[in-house]
Design brief:
The chain is 17% helix and 35% strand. The chain has 172 residues and is of the alpha+beta class. It folds into 2 domains: 1-49, no CATH class; 55-171, Immunoglobulin-like (Sandwich).
């Protein structure tokens, strides 16, 4: 919907050069207002894209929970599939999401990372997703066939993993 523009020309502007500058400025404002107002219409003309996540995982003190399951109940995913996962920090403190095996509590990460290790440039070296209280994030990733087996999702914020903020991730 275009915005209605009310342009007022002031009689004090009698010098042509000043009037030209004023008209140019007014024209630019009018054009930018029309374009700015019509951009949402252009986006809607192409259809709004709504992506439904494959999984929604909530986290809080001190759990991970696939929506519809009990806290820290194992989560199952298929190998060879692309996933769109929605994460939501429902807790009162910062939480993070790591995917891996062999927790290293001194380094606060997994020794083997499901989505790529630090020096594994082929898999982009994903380490963790960190969310503040109330924050959400959507992440898309692919789990290769070679990653079948039992993994874990954990939070390595100081004391969280030790308090039980971890759950089994089974890649089938």
């Amino acid at each position: 919907m275009a915005q209605e523009l009310n342009l007022v020309f002031l009689e004090e502007y009698t010098v042509d050069n000043t009037r030209r500058k004023f008209l140019k400025t007014a024209g630019l404002v009018a054009i930018s207002g029309i374009v700015g107002a019509s951009v949402p219409g252009i986006a809607k003309a192409h259809g709004e894209v709504t992506l439904e996540p494959d999984l929604t995982i909530g986290m809080g003190e001190f759990f991970f929970q696939l929506h519809g399951q009990e806290p820290n109940e194992p989560i199952r995913m298929e190998a060879g599939k692309k996933y769109l996962v929605f994460f939501e920090n429902e807790g009162q403190v910062t939480h993070e999401i790591h995917f891996g095996r062999e927790p290293d509590l001194e380094e606060r990460e997994y020794k083997v990372n499901l989505l790529g290790n630090e020096n594994d440039h082929e898999n982009h070296g994903f380490i963790a997703l960190i969310l503040q209280p109330g924050e959400t994030a959507t992440m898309q990733f692919f789990i290769p066939e070679s990653k079948r087996g039992e993994w874990e999702i954990g939070c390595f914020m100081l004391g969280h993993y030790e308090a039980g903020q971890k759950t089994t991730l089974i890649v089938e």
